[in-house]
Amino acid sequence: MRGLLLNISVIALMAIAGTSLCLIAGWEWRTREMLVAASMSFIVSEFSLLPLFLVRRSNQFAVAQAGLAGSGIQLLLMGGIAGLLVLAKVGLREGFLFWLLAFYPALLIVNVLIVLRPFAR
Q1: pTM, 2 dp
Q2: Residues 6+ apart with CB under 8 A from 6
């Protein structure tokens, strides 16, 4: 549950920050591309937390391996789905990739912090 709320808040924060930066710089901020990138990033980020959910009552070694698997899942799914959307020519412009470049590192940091939380105890 905590991961869900953190991911939503980080996506909203990055969308607001990116939109503000675009408005200040005078760039077109492309609502459609932002919404597609945000929804794709959210789904992939939540899916990458699945290995951590599966080992929630295990030892630290299993949690560390689940975190590694989760970040690999996030990287591969994000890159794969983005590549498919670009190659399929679904009408997304270059702004889609720029929005993904904003969402991916922020969500990766959040997921790593979620994985590290059991080690703080």
Answers
A1: 0.84
A2: 110, 113, 114
